[in-house]
């Protein structure tokens, strides 16, 4: 199997439990909740995505022939030091492409593997850190993991249902759109009213990181 990757780069994780941690981001092309094209946004299940995952033309991106080739690219981006190697598989929807070969190859090169997924597909059992960000109107099948990240507010989202899912950490994150100040206040109020949840901010945007 080959892999279509929009971009691959070294950065600091900008949000969630691992915020501030050095990481290689592997952004896979394609998603099952939106084509990524503006003409289709109004009809998409997820209408608020702020990420470009269309094509394979981003920095470090391309079509990788097999898991070993992609894992080698991630290792090259990290550098020769194998200490605490950390790869974040994201998208789009990464579970459309992740398979045994890639997971094994990343582990062989010393990576701890995290995923950021919409949860509509079962996550590969070899993933070390599972972050699910559910989208209202989708059917979430991955209802357990390490980190549940709820973008807020979302019309049609059911936080009470989310609280019944089995996650070690629950985070609420303001929706980044033109009403951000309102959304930030709503997310703060959410966390204040629901002590099982913590506020998460997109620190990479505040710091000017990718």
From TrEMBL:
S-adenosyl-L-methionine binds at residues 48-50, 92, 133-135, 173-176. It comes from the Bacteria. Pathway: Purine metabolism; 7-cyano-7-deazaguanine biosynthesis. Residues 18-210 form the Radical SAM core domain. Keywords: 4Fe-4S, Iron, Iron-sulfur, Lyase, Magnesium, Metal-binding, Queuosine biosynthesis, S-adenosyl-L-methionine. InterPro entries: 7-CO-7-deazaguanine_synth-like, Aldolase_TIM, QueE_Cx14CxxC, rSAM, rSAM_sf. Substrate binds at residues 12-14, 27, 90. Binds 1 [4Fe-4S] cluster. The cluster is coordinated with 3 cysteines and an exchangeable S-adenosyl-L-methionine. Mg(2+) binds at residue 51. Its EC number is 4.3.99.3. [4Fe-4S] cluster binds at residues 31, 46, 49. It is an enzyme of class 4 (lyase). Its cofactor is Mg(2+); [4Fe-4S] cluster; S-adenosyl-L-methionine. It catalyses: 6-carboxy-5,6,7,8-tetrahydropterin + H(+) = 7-carboxy-7-carbaguanine + NH4(+). Catalyzes the complex heterocyclic radical-mediated conversion of 6-carboxy-5,6,7,8-tetrahydropterin (CPH4) to 7-carboxy-7-deazaguanine (CDG), a step common to the biosynthetic pathways of all 7-deazapurine-containing compounds. Belongs to the radical SAM superfamily. 7-carboxy-7-deazaguanine synthase family. Homodimer. This is 7-carboxy-7-deazaguanine synthase.
